[in-house]
Amino acid sequence: YDSGAGYMHRYVLLFIVFLIVRKISSAVTHYTLPEEMKEGTVVANLATDLGLDVTTLTKRKMRLDIIANKKYLDVNKETGELYIVEKIDREHICNTKSSSSCYLRLEITLENPLRIFNIELEVLDMNDNAPHFRRDAIHLDISEATPKGERFSLSNAVDPDVGTNSVKTYYLSESEYFNIEIQTGRDGSKFADLILIKTLDREKKENHNLILTAVDGGTPARSGTVNIFVHVLDTNDNAPTFDKAAYNVKIMENSPIGSLELHHRRLHSGVQRCLLVQSVSSRDQERKAGGETACAKGLQIHRVQHPERDRTVRD
């Protein structure tokens, strides 16, 4: 029975101590502070707010502990003021955008008698970051046969800031062929789709250089840009054409091969010119000679043979 009574006595004492400690530290004092404040900036006077005697702070060994973070703040034991030791970067403390709130939790301890004060410091976001794109440039290959209204997804800009200081909208440089439409993701992030508003024509313009600008909602607003390079791919939408409907050509019998050029225009990449080539080695062969047309494409020459029945040769 004595052993059981002693056990119950110790249990009651521990329970009483738990209640006292809980009572001592149950109250939470709340402060708000913008990020990036200068070192030495006074946040609040703890002695006044907590009802402490400033003259006893040193004697009672007052100390401040920051839970799960480095020591960004400290207490002046002579004045009871809570001040900044090192600049606070909200994006470093709260590196996730899942919540718009960011807190530092502090604990103030005094001895003789023991007192514990819980302090919650909310770090407010400042517009100290500009939107930026993950890539330096966006490259798009678009066929000239693409119909109007076609959409192309663009990489979105990112901004470490939250709330109204994050990316708010996008702007596209002036273009008669393209426009953008701003979309909102499930997480509230903003991104833009590139929309073709006028049919492309590679023969008129092969490359389009655009600038996409992301702007946040801070005051003053910050922005970031990315270059968009659109290369128009060719389709077979034009037939070859000649400068004239007919050509009258006179050739000297001793003309060297390749001396006569017949030009034709073709708007596509490919065949650029054709050469009428006549091979002559003797008078007899001259009357029977066929011919060939050599078409140059780049540095290669493609020859098409023409038999005697397809060509008239005169002395």
Automatic annotation (TrEMBL):
First-listed, main subcellular location of the protein, grouped into a coarse class: membrane
Compartment list: Membrane
A Pfam family assignment: Cadherin_2
Keyword Membrane (UniProt): yes
Organism: Poecilia latipinna (sailfin molly)
Highest taxon, organism lineage: Eukaryota
PROSITE patterns xrefs: CADHERIN_1, CADHERIN_2
Protein name: Cadherin domain-containing protein
Domain Cadherin positions: 25-133, 134-242
One GO CC term on file: plasma membrane
SMART domains according to UniProt: CA
GO molecular function: calcium ion binding
GO biological process: anatomical structure morphogenesis; homophilic cell adhesion via plasma membrane adhesion molecules
Signal peptide range in chain numbering: 1-26
Keyword Glycoprotein attached: yes
Record keywords, A-Z: Calcium, Cell adhesion, Glycoprotein, Membrane, Repeat, Signal, Transmembrane, Transmembrane helix
Membrane topology: Single-pass membrane protein
